[in-house]
Amino acid sequence: MIAYDIAKRAVRRREDYRELEIIGYDVSRQIKVTLRDVQLYEVFMKNLLSAANIESVSPGFDRTDRDKVESDLLTDAAHNAKQQAEHMAKGFGAKLGTVYAITQQGSFHNLVTQFTIGTGGRSGGGGGGMGGGSRGRDEALFVPSTISFRKTVSAIYKIIPGDNS
Question: What's the CA gap between 115 and 117, in Å, rounded?
Answer without folding.
Answer: 7
